[in-house]
Specification:
Chain lengths: 181, 99
């Protein structure tokens, strides 16, 4: 006879496993697709998987922000740019640099995994989170009391980015001539 | 789910993003790979904030999202400007500054 709590934990673990593996597969799709429009669609899927994982780890406000900001605003921007520039297919050839890069990445992954398992990390005992952990109210209270400077600096950063983009878009530069050798 | 699984998922996504940034030549896909790397770090911050029962990680993830949004907007504007002057979408050909 299984306890209800055990069944709940098992189901949660299974859902986290499936969604996490889907996120990894979607990120592989982003990198391996030759057409940018498919990469963008895979990236949207990846963002949605990450939002689900945020929800499973008690971060409901960040999950909503992830959907609105990333899967909404940023990816719409990407899709507009792809539509404007024309998503041309890229010929992927196997070169020496490419195999070197893939080897490097596998070594990096192995090192990260070893440092996660072998290193002196001590087991974190899971406490039961508070009642409103990760809600908009809790995040807002924390943001406007403890991290108010960072919040104001972020507003300055966004303003500078907006002004910079207007400058880049408004003043067109003379076409650059490629120097002949 | 334990920490090892979370660390493995995050490291895999980060490494896939690094590979994409290194082997692709389309600047748009390179930007998407940078987004993958930022997202993997966000995921790690959120999960550890849940493990440690502290909201600081989530605030940090929010700040990373802000920086990523600003970075994407400026980067795409630069790509658009380059494309307007050169009509070419291969980063290997953008070598005007080279001596």
């Amino acid at each position: 006879m299984l306890e209800i709590a055990t069944v709940f934990d098992f189901t949660r673990d299974a859902v986290i496993l499936v969604v996490g593996l889907t996120a990894v597969l979607a990120s592989l799709g982003v990198v391996l697709c030759s057409s940018p429009i498919y990469s963008a669609l895979y990236l949207i899927g990846h963002m949605i998987c990450l939002a689900l994982l945020f929800l499973l780890y008690n971060a409901e406000f960040l999950a909503v922000v992830q959907i609105i900001v990333y899967a909404g605003a940023v990816m719409i921007l990407f899709l507009f740019i792809i539509a404007l520039l024309g998503g041309k297919k890229e010929i992927q050839e196997n070169s020496f640099h490419r195999s070197m890069a893939i080897t490097f990445v596998f070594i990096l992954l192995g090192e990260l995994y070893l440092s996660a398992t072998v290193g002196p990390t001590k087991q974190i005992q899971g406490e039961i989170p508070a009642e409103m952990f990760g809600t908009a109210k809790a995040i807002g209270l924390e943001l406007f009391s403890k991290h108010i400077v960072a919040f104001e600096l972020a507003s300055g950063l966004l303003l500078v980015a907006a002004v910079g983009v207007i400058c880049l878009a408004k003043f067109s530069f003379a076409p650059l001539r490629r120097r002949t050798r | 789910m334990g920490e090892e699984f979370v660390l493995l998922i995050s490291a895999s996504i980060f490494c896939v993003g690094t590979a994409g940034f290194v082997i692709r030549k389309n600047p748009l896909i390179m930007f998407m790979s940078v987004e993958l790397m930022l997202n993997s770090v966000n995921f790690l911050l959120v999960t550890y904030s849940s493990f440690l029962n502290s909201l600081d990680g989530q605030i940090f993830a929010l700040m990373i999202m802000t920086v990523a949004a600003a970075e994407v907007v400026v980067g795409l504007a630069i790509i658009l400007t380059i494309f307007r002057t050169r009509h070419d979408m291969d980063v290997d050909h953008i070598d005007v500054l080279k001596g």
